[in-house]
Amino acid sequence: MDILNLVWTNGASFIFILTVIVFFHELGHYAIARINGVRVEAFSIGFGPELFGWTAKSGTRWKVCLLPLGGYVKMFGETMSGAEDEEETRLTPEEEAVSFHHKRVGQRAAIVAAGPIANFILAVVVFAVLFTTHGQPFTPPEAGTIQADSAAEAAGMKPGDKFVTVDGQAIERFEDVQGIVRMAVGRELTIVVNRDGKELILKAVPKPHQIGSDTIGLLGVSRAGPNYIRHGPLEATYRAVQETWRLSAFTLQAVGQIIVGKRSAEGLGGPIRIAEMSGQQAELGMARVFWFLALLSINLGLINLFPIPMLDGGHLVFYGIEAIQGRAVSDRTMEYGFRIGLGLVLSLFVFVTVQDLMRFETIANFLKGLVS
Questions:
Q1: Which is catalytic among the residues 26, 78, 243, 276?
Q2: Of residues 174, 176, 170, 167, the one with CA closest to residue 243
Q3: pTM of the prediction?
């Protein structure tokens, strides 16, 4: 796909999805900061020059900026860290009362954690609405056709077998089986099935299957086809929480496999990949757009909780140390930590961006020529 076509075709859906998840992330920080009496000086969607905005009665400048690749909430006193700052910047009692730095460590931790938590809440709300209006994808946990020379055939599985548990996990729908099997390439799984009213224990080793640059496990079992079940508001909310938890666990498991080398990192994508996928989802309808939005919101929440300085998780680590030792982490330690964090974040950004560009044949040939 040509890059210009990618930008024009997928740009609108990409900006919409990113703006929504970033807005809710920053809104979490903003709301808890205001509850704890912190003065918020700016609430920005995007970076760079301001396109438009307004100043609220509270003094907060709400604005939209040129580069729609993130956002931030600027709180009064947020940049202060230690005694040196306090000596250089004399605050009045009124200013100390609304300063982020002068809040208790528990309050500061709550403000920082509120961003990722808001992303998880957004995902639950979106899933709940989808499950109420459009329905939740649901396929009965029953084996359809068994492929020849497959792991399922070798295990003795037969059409009509109903999955009870896989790898010790209870199965409610066929999608549960897929989620477990995909992450178990080459590992023996214990599968309990119900056949004609009797439970049988089978052993299967999922075979590797290549999808693009990634490898997943396959049993070789087909399904009858997805159904959609609509739930009432309470049931939909419960199911939405389950789905958010399931996708979070799946994402963390995938990241863990990448770190230990069991999974290819080529499946990671950056802004260009997200833009392309946004456009693909838009072509399939608004329900798929919002499902993708919820998935990205979960990923943003998880990434921000990683214990990397610069991210929310890194701040939480510093606040945890402060709570344990009874004093703030030294300025030098924080400075080194943030430098390391900046290096990690920039390295990851460059890595995923290069991988995105490598998907375009012309650019891929150019980049390969630089190192050949």
A1: 26
A2: 176
A3: 0.76
